[in-house]
Design a protein that fits this description.
heterodimer; A: about 130 residues; alpha+beta; about 15% strand; B: alpha+beta; five-stranded antiparallel β-sheet; two-stranded antiparallel sheet
């Protein structure tokens, strides 16, 4: 299982807010200030899994179906301003939490700090 | 917060009653109600649905869908203070899906905690819903208590 949470959609969300008078544009701006690293990150395609190879046997067919499902899965993208809350939530629920060199480990799952200032992305994953 | 049933169809709901603090200005109340209207637009299976809101006497009330499994905080407590990652991650991933939906619409929760994650028994697993989306800070800013 791998879920990447990138700040890729945040700029769009912020812009959407600015354009919508009924929303708090200030909050949207506070929510996301892109950094160069984030801008680069946004250019990266967010894909989980790879396209399924042609299947020949039954086992391959099942594996291919699984891979195709993974490839279709769109990872959640959450606001940078919420990353702290998400971390706290994990810490409070699971109770094991380690933060070293920008990588947080929770019981075998890693939360990678992808970007430091302004906005952050995290990666909750196991294996891959 | 009350557990209730809708009179017309016996549908189970949760009703939250908020009482304005003394000194809450008309402006802050107006802004608060406007925010409620926007929050009502958040429609996602992993976010508690605001079914209805209104005023009764001096109190505001909010009707949400009822979650029969209590909160994530309750579950953590029942499991002795922590969950295994196997139990927690399906819940977390659902929360992230709900958060993504809201964030794409420009809302941040700002008060994520196990008490604000509600659970509904669904087969052998849990349907997780992020509750009080945006409400906590709005309540505070508008001078409400509940």
């Amino acid at each position: 299982m791998l879920v990447r949470i990138y700040p890729a959609s945040l700029r769009a969300a912020a812009q959407q807010n600015v354009e919508r008078p009924d929303c708090d544009a200030g909050a949207a701006k506070r929510l996301y200030t892109p950094t160069t690293a984030e801008a680069n990150l946004e250019e990266r395609p967010v894909v989980v899994g790879k396209a399924a190879p042609p299947a020949h046997g039954k086992a391959e067919g099942v594996a291919a179906e699984k891979q195709a499902k993974n490839a279709e899965r769109v990872p959640p993208q959450v606001a940078a301003g919420e990353i702290g809350g998400i971390r706290n939530l994990i810490q409070q629920a699971v109770g094991r939490y380690r933060d070293k060199d920008g990588t947080i480990e929770v019981d075998g799952y890693k939360l990678e700090k992808l970007v430091g200032r302004g906005g952050m992305g995290v990666c909750i994953g196991q294996g891959e | 917060m009350y557990r209730a049933r809708r009179v017309t169809d016996d549908f189970p709901v949760a009703v939250k009653v908020m009482v304005p603090k003394v000194g809450a200005s008309d402006k802050s109340r107006h802004r608060f109600l406007k925010e409620i209207d926007v929050i009502r637009e958040l429609n996602h299976p992993n976010i508690t649905t605001l079914i209805e809101s209104g005023v009764t006497g001096k109190a505001f009330y909010f009707v949400f869908d009822y979650c029969n499994g209590g909160s994530l905080a309750d579950l953590v407590f029942r499991r002795g203070g922590k969950l295994s990652s196997k139990a927690f991650y399906p819940i977390m991933l659902q929360c992230l899906a709900g958060l993504e939906h809201a964030h794409q619409r420009g809302f941040v929760h700002r008060d994520l905690k196990p008490g604000n994650i509600l659970l509904h028994q669904q087969g052998t697993g849990w349907l997780a819903k992020v509750a009080d989306f945006g409400l906590a800070k709005q309540f505070e800013q508008a001078g409400f208590s509940g």
